[in-house]
Specification:
Length: about 230
């Protein structure tokens, strides 16, 4: 009779409410998924998190001990050709390295100088920062470069103190680990089109010499160009 229909109507209404709640939850889930996919597509378009950061980390790994110099009779997992191939694969053909110089070969040449003029011990990245702009991604890294000062360091970078044996003897053989900031500018094609280096030479030599005037004299005429380029 009429009394039975009330619970049935309540039951139908209750089920409809459940359906509406389920649909609302479904819509919410889809909205969340849409936002995730939208974020992901933005990241994939610029790919700072995945591929570009991976490129930078790979760069620090490939050059962690500088340039692999040819040594007779020694087999290595990676040789100079591998490093050069890597450099050419991640750098734009016209990568700006400062001082009006361009191209991955200039960078390889610098890496060789850094591995010959000093004893390049270890390059270590400690942190990074990513800025995504309209048409580029900039990854700034904070790292340290541990190296040993050689007699070649004095001859090739500080020739003006060669005669100052009292100073040369303080420097040769000493190990330092200054901070180095390396900034990679990536273009829309995902290639590094500009490369900036800031190595704390002042901090490195102040840790040994301690006298600011001598450090100024040492670095003032050092053969180090802008962007920390040797030669």
């Amino acid at each position: 009779g009429p009394y039975r229909s009330v619970p049935r109507e309540r039951s139908v209404a209750f089920n409809l409410t459940l359906d509406v709640q389920n649909l609302q939850q479904e819509v919410h889930n889809m909205a969340v998924l849409r936002d995730i996919l939208r974020t992901k597509s933005l990241l994939q378009r610029h790919t700072p998190e995945d591929s570009l950061l991976h490129v930078v980390k790979e760069y620090f790994h490939v050059f962690r001990t500088g340039s692999v110099l040819r040594q007779a009779g020694r087999k290595r997992l990676m040789d100079e050709q591998d490093q050069s191939a890597f450099m050419h694969s991640v750098m734009d053909a016209e990568v700006d390295v400062g001082n009006g110089l361009h191209g991955p070969d200039v960078m390889m040449n610098q890496m060789t100088m850094y591995s010959t003029f000093i004893k390049f011990i270890r390059l270590t990245m400690h942190s990074f920062d990513i800025v995504v702009a309209e048409d580029s991604v900039v990854i700034t890294t904070n790292a340290t470069l541990m190296f040993q000062i050689l007699r070649a360091t004095i001859e090739m970078i500080f020739p003006h103190i060669v005669a100052e044996e009292w100073l040369v003897s303080q420097l040769v053989g000493r190990e330092v680990e200054p901070t180095i900031g390396i900034t990679f500018f990536f273009n829309p094609e995902g290639k590094c089109c500009k490369y900036e280096v800031d190595l704390d030479f002042v901090g490195a030599f102040t840790s040994i010499v301690k006298v600011p005037e001598i450090v100024n004299m040492l670095l003032g005429r050092a053969l180090i160009a802008d962007n920390c380029m040797f030669g």
